[in-house]
C-alpha cells in the first residue's frame, strides 16, 4: 500500500448453511455486499468471522476464495492468530502469496495457563514480520488474556519492521491509543479501534485514524470518521448519535450474530446459523436488532432483495 490505510475496515462474517457447512457462495455475496457498503477494506477470519470454529482446511478455502473474489477491489486483511509461531508464520506467508494487503494477529494465547512472556510475544510478531513484507496489525483484545503494555507495543513498532497498525479493544481504549500515539510517534502508522465502534468518538478524540467494526452498518459509521477527520466534528457527533443505539445493541446484546442476522433478513445470505457452542439470538434480541436496523435503513437489510 502506497498510502496508510485509514477509514472503516469491517470484519466479514462467515456464513454457514443450517447444517453448519460453510456457505461459499454466501461468502462471496457477503464480500460483494460489504464493497457496496463503501468499506475502505475488508478483514476476514477474525473473531467476528468465527475463526475459532473453523477448521484449518476451511480457513485455507476461505482465504483463497475471499482474495480471489475481491480481486483487488478493496484491500483485504487476513487474520492469522495462532498460539504456535510456526503456524502463524505459515498463515502469514500464505495470505501474502494470495494477495492480502495486511495480516492481523493477536498475541499467542491458549487460556490463562499458557500466557507467554513479553519476549515470546515480541518473538512471534518478529518471526511473522521476517517472513513477509506486508503490514501487520496488532490486535489488542481482551479475548487473548494477554496484556500488551504500551511500552511493549511501542518497542514492537520501532523494532519490528512490518508492525505498524494497531487495533485497540481493551477497556479505556482511548487512553491507551493516546499513549501509544504519543510514545510511538511516526512508527504508529495506523491506530484503529474496534468493539463495533462503541468507543469511536473517544477514540477519534485520542487520535485513531480508523475503525474495524462488523459488517452491520459500515456505511452509517464511515461518515463519522470522514467528518471528524475533515474537522467537521459537529456533523460527526450528529452521525454518532444516530448510529449509537444500533452500535450499542450489537455490542452489548448481539455480538458477532448481529451482522449475520441482518444479512439473512436482507437476502445477502441464506442462514444466520452460528456453530455450537455459540447460540442463536433470542427472538426478543433479534426483534430489537431488526427494528433498529430498519430505522437506519442499513444496506445489509435490503441488499439481496
UniProtKB/TrEMBL annotation:
<comment type="similarity">
    <text>Belongs to the DapA family.</text>
</comment>
<dbReference type="Pfam" id="PF00701">
    <property type="entry name" value="DHDPS"/>
</dbReference>
<dbReference type="InterPro" id="IPR013785">
    <property type="entry name" value="Aldolase_TIM"/>
</dbReference>
<dbReference type="InterPro" id="IPR002220">
    <property type="entry name" value="DapA-like"/>
</dbReference>
<protein>
    <submittedName>
        <fullName>Dihydrodipicolinate synthase family protein</fullName>
    </submittedName>
</protein>
<keyword id="KW-0456">Lyase</keyword>
Amino acid at each position: 500500500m502506497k498510502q496508510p490505510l485509514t477509514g472503516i475496515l469491517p470484519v466479514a462474517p462467515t456464513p454457514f448453511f443450517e447444517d453448519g457447512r460453510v456457505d461459499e457462495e454466501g461468502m462471496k455475496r457477503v464480500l460483494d455486499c460489504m464493497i457496496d457498503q463503501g468499506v475502505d477494506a475488508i478483514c476476514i477470519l477474525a473473531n467476528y468471522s468465527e475463526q475459532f470454529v473453523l477448521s484449518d482446511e476451511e480457513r485455507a478455502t476461505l482465504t483463497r476464495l475471499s482474495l480471489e473474489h475481491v480481486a483487488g477491489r478493496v484491500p483485504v486483511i487476513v487474520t492469522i492468530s495462532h498460539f504456535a509461531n510456526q503456524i502463524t508464520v505459515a498463515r502469514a506467508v500464505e495470505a501474502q502469496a494470495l494477495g492480502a494487503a495486511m495480516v492481523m494477529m493477536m498475541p499467542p494465547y491458549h487460556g490463562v495457563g499458557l500466557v507467554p512472556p513479553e519476549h515470546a510475544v515480541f518473538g512471534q510478531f518478529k518471526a511473522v514480520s521476517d517472513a513477509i513484507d506486508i503490514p501487520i496489525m496488532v490486535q489488542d483484545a481482551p479475548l487473548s488474556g494477554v496484556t500488551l503494555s504500551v511500552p511493549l507495543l511501542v518497542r514492537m513498532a520501532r523494532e519490528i519492521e512490518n508492525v505498524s497498525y494497531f487495533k485497540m479493544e481493551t477497556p479505556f481504549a482511548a487512553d491507551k491509543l493516546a499513549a501509544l500515539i504519543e510514545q510511538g510517534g511516526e512508527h504508529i502508522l495506523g491506530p484503529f479501534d474496534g468493539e463495533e465502534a462503541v468507543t469511536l468518538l473517544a477514540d477519534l478524540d485520542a487520535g485513531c485514524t480508523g475503525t474495524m467494526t462488523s459488517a452491520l452498518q459500515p456505511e452509517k459509521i464511515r461518515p463519522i470518521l470522514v467528518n471528524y477527520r475533515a474537522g467537521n466534528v459537529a456533523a460527526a457527533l450528529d452521525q454518532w448519535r444516530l448510529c449509537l443505539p444500533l452500535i450499542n445493541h450489537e455490542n452489548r446484546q448481539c455480538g458477532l450474530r448481529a451482522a449475520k442476522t441482518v444479512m439473512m433478513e436482507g437476502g445477502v445470505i441464506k442462514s444466520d446459523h452460528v456453530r455450537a457452542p455459540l447460540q442463536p439470538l433470542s427472538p426478543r434480541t433479534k426483534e430489537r436488532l431488526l427494528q433498529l436496523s430498519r430505522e437506519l435503513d442499513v444496506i445489509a437489510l435490503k441488499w439481496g432483495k
